[in-house]
Write a structure and sequence with these properties.
Elements lengths: L1 E5 L8 H14 L5 E5 L10 H20 L4 E4 L7 H7 L4 E3 H9 L6 E5 L5 H10 L6 E6 L8 H4 L3 H20 L4 E5 L1 H6 L7 E2 L2 E2 L3 H19 L14 H14 L5
Parallel strand pairs: 1-2, 1-3, 3-4, 5-6, 5-7
Antiparallel strand pairs: 8-9
Helix pairs in contact: 2-3, 2-10, 4-9
Length: about 260
């Protein structure tokens, strides 16, 4: 099984994170499964809707190439899931959204979900995600850590002090959510998700903290297996009607026209 993982982080500026993410995903993958991690340049560096849209366009283009190159599944490794439904309507391989998979999985562990995101700019986005996935009544609170992707670099490069500080900052953000009723904590981003990955049984108070990176990968493996077992796939009715060849070609042509030469 070959899985393509689309990150919204730059391969060079966040090299320690990208290296650790690729290593971790391949460590926990089932026997015979390999995971290719791809970044985006420029990264999602200006938090907001326009940046999310720009990265989503690149991610969709990469998804079309992923299927052409024989991958078995595509993971939107960016918790906000921009372009997820468009990807699912464009590809015939399973398409997994980290945010969607994690929110649905976490809803089985408790009734009220608390999200800790990188920046407060994403708070409204996560409430909108919950609405989209039918979980708006389950989100207790969302809070931002107020950090950037590069703030995690030292921790992923092996600096134990930096990692302990980031874990402490995460717990400090999550604790008020638990005090206000959240009984499951979700790192709403693969960066903090990977940060807590080595913390077995990590909790804030009584609330389990869900590792979104692991959930997304295992969801991808599950949906590939289910597709192989009995052909289960998304509805091709109004929800995810499959785009035809011309639509896919038109999209790729527009993206190719705007790409810098040599990229």
């Amino acid at each position: 099984m070959r899985i393509f993982w689309q990150s919204f982080v730059d391969q060079a500026t966040s090299a320690p994170y990208m290296a650790r993410l690729a290593a971790y995903l391949n460590e926990i993958a089932a026997p015979g499964t390999t995971v290719h991690v791809e970044g985006i340049t420029p990264a999602d560096r200006d938090f907001g809707r326009l940046s999310e849209l720009r990265c989503a366009i690149q991610a969709i283009d990469n998804g079309l190439a992923t299927q052409e190159n024989g991958f078995d599944a595509y993971v939107m490794g960016h918790f906000q899931d921009p372009g997820l439904y468009e990807l699912r309507s464009a590809l015939t391989i399973p398409v997994i959204g980290t945010g969607e998979a994690t929110l649905l999985a976490a809803s089985q562990l408790g009734r009220r979900l608390g999200l800790v995101t990188l920046d407060s700019a994403f708070e409204v986005w996560h409430y909108e995600q919950a609405d989209r996935y039918g979980l708006s009544g389950r989100i207790a609170h969302v809070t931002g850590m107020g950090c950037r992707p590069e703030d995690f670099s030292a921790a992923f490069a092996g600096d134990a002090t930096a990692k302990a500080r980031m874990l402490s900052d995460f717990a400090a953000c999550a604790q008020p959510l638990v005090e206000r009723g959240a009984d499951v904590i979700i790192p709403a981003g693969v960066l903090p998700g990977l940060l807590i990955a080595s913390e077995h049984g990590f909790k804030v108070g009584y609330a389990p903290v869900v590792n979104c990176a692991a959930v997304a990968l295992k969801s991808a493996e599950m949906w590939v297996q289910l597709q192989r077992l009995n052909g289960t796939g998304p509805s091709r009715g109004p929800s995810f009607a499959l785009a035809n060849d011309r639509a896919r070609q038109d999209f790729r042509a527009v993206v190719a026209r705007d790409k810098p030469k040599g990229s």
